[in-house]
Design a protein that fits this description.
4-stranded mixed sheet, 16% strand
């Protein structure tokens, strides 16, 4: 498989983003030199990588950074194979405790404990827990609140006189109206567990905001009726044809393309995806809203974004540690967050897009921790069961009861 590297060809976009961030003075450090390889897991991070590496190389002109973005389907296999062969990247995305890989790498000594190597003074404990195992930090997070929102095709809504729903009941009525016109209401794939999660969590938050608010409590049952109701709602929508012929939408990338091509009215996905969608289809007019509760309230479920971990076998240790410290700096965080286009979790860094700013205003600080992240913090085994089981459930291979029984056996 070939990796993918993006040169700074989109200079116009780069200049616009740089100006939006303002002038951040950087003093060059020529004492560190070398060559680094950095791996990311999603094409949606093309622009943030450009901005981050540009800023780092400005500060460390004697360090050359090569970065690649790999298909998530094969990403962890390629990381593991590269490390075993001694040709792995110096720094790579691990997704923190949201998946089992960081724990595996930490237990194997594949990645280094960064607690005393990186200046984490710009983070509080609530920002670091996704990267921590047994009180030790193995990754540098990004101060974006990664949530899930409803993107919609503005022109399609205007042509059909569809209104933005103010309650969950109105949203379900809207799904029926859209389907009646022959248009697929929501673009979704049944083959990707995270695409499914990104719909389940907004439904859970809208149907049961009080449950979402208290989800981090130690005694919260992660398989309680509110969770089952949210998942069942998705199954009902699938049976009702609200996702169209979704078996032809093979992955999360196809889901986005299906929406961007005008084949669906809405796409419920990451709050960071607007920048990428608009870059891939500048002619598409999109806007977004939060899936509302029946009382009209609006909340967001999500988590702080995960960043890079350090390969314990790196031959460029000083340069790699300098890169991670730059990621943890205000300059590095600002570049990533603003290019990313997501919701800023740091009040000193303003979100860069109008959609994101509007979503933040709608949420009114009703930000809740991701159901999946709470589950992952309790049991790494549950992550593997959930990732496989969600897909099997929506492909009709297991029942919701089967899935809950499997998860209950490891969550307790």
């Amino acid at each position: 498989l070939m990796g993918w590297r993006k040169e700074l060809a989109g200079l116009g976009t780069f200049i616009i983003l740089s100006n939006a961030m303002g002038s951040l003075s950087v003093r060059a450090d020529e004492s560190i030199s070398g060559k680094l390889t950095v791996w990311e897991h999603s094409i949606t991070f093309e622009m943030p990588m450009e901005m981050l590496v540009s800023g780092f190389e400005e500060k460390y002109p004697n360090v050359d950074v090569e970065w690649e973005i790999w298909d998530m389907e094969n990403y962890y296999d390629l990381v593991s194979l590269g490390i075993q062969a001694g040709s792995g990247p110096d720094l790579f995305y691990t997704d923190g405790i949201a998946r089992t890989k960081m724990r595996e790498y930490a237990d194997q000594g594949t990645i280094l404990n960064l607690t005393d190597l990186v200046d984490f003074s710009n983070f509080d404990e609530a920002n670091l827990w996704r990267e921590e195992i047994d009180g030790k930090c193995y990754g540098v997070p990004w101060l974006t609140f990664d949530s899930r929102i409803v993107y919609y095709n503005v022109e399609m809504f205007q042509e059909n006189n569809w209104k933005i729903p103010e309650t969950f009941a109105e949203f379900e009525e809207l799904l029926g109206k859209i389907k009646d016109t022959g248009i697929t209401p929501i673009s979704l794939t049944p083959y990707d567990s995270y695409s499914l999660l990104f719909l389940m969590e907004p439904i859970l938050t809208a149907l049961h905001p009080e449950y979402a608010e208290n989800i981090t409590e130690d005694d919260t049952d992660l398989l309680a009726e509110p969770v089952k109701e949210a998942i069942q709602k998705m199954l009902d929508w699938a049976a009702g044809g609200y996702f169209g012929d979704w078996t032809e939408v093979l992955n999360g990338g196809d889901q986005g393309l299906n929406f961007m091509s005008g084949n669906a009215a809405m796409n419920i996905c990451g709050s960071w995806d607007a920048t990428n969608m608009q870059a891939n289809n500048p002619d598409l007019k999109i806007d977004a809203f939060i899936l509302p509760s029946n009382d009209g309230s609006k909340g967001l479920m999500g988590s702080i974004a995960s960043g890079f971990s350090l390969n314990a076998e790196t031959e460029n240790r000083d340069a790699a540690i300098a890169f991670l410290n730059y990621c943890a700096s205000l300059d590095g965080q600002s570049r990533w967050i603003r290019a990313h286009g997501g919701i800023s979790a740091d009040e000193s860094i303003e979100s860069s897009t109008e959609i994101t700013k509007k979503i933040q205003e709608q949420a009114e600080n009703n930000l809740f921790t991701s159901w999946e992240m709470v589950m992952a913090s309790r049991s790494s085994e549950a992550v593997d069961i959930w990732e496989k089981g969600f897909v099997e459930l929506f492909l009709g291979k297991i029942t919701l009861e089967n899935l809950c029984e499997q998860l209950a056996s490891v969550i307790g």
